[in-house]
Design a protein that fits this description.
The chain is mainly alpha-helical. It has helices at about 1-10, 25-35, 50-65, 85-110; strands at about 15-20, 40-45. The two termini are about 25 Å apart. The model has no long low-confidence stretch (mean pLDDT about 90).
Length: about 110
């Protein structure tokens, strides 16, 4: 879903710079190739890790960007009942789908225009 939002924003030239944040650099680089005129910043971060959230927070404080859009579409899911899903996988889902979403929103809130 995030990839589709990036395509729309880049195609319609709605942003001076687009920050792409994900764990896998190759996926971000492949998206960047489709829009040679668009300025991208690639941030290879795992938003479920406190140290990566701290790095993002430091970057935001240093750069003080004027953020027009915040599209946070990271998420994960396992199908099954709670008994069927291993505890660590369930905890990872909560970390990604709840904790990271809350943390990232909180970090970006002061910079939204």
């Amino acid at each position: 879903m995030g990839r589709e939002f990036v395509k729309i924003i880049a195609r319609e030239k709605r942003a001076d710079e687009i920050w792409l944040i994900a764990r896998r650099r190759a996926r971000l680089e492949s998206l960047k190739k489709h829009f040679p005129g668009q300025k991208f910043r690639i941030l290879c971060l795992d938003l479920c890790k406190n140290e990566d959230l701290s790095s993002l927070e430091e970057l935001l404080e240093r750069e003080t960007p004027a953020v027009q859009y915040l599209i946070h579409s990271a998420g994960t899911g396992e199908m099954g009942t709670i008994e069927e899903i291993p505890r660590q996988e369930a905890e990872n889902m909560v970390a990604c789908n709840c904790v990271a979403v809350t943390a990232v929103t909180s970090l970006f809130l002061p910079y939204l225009t």
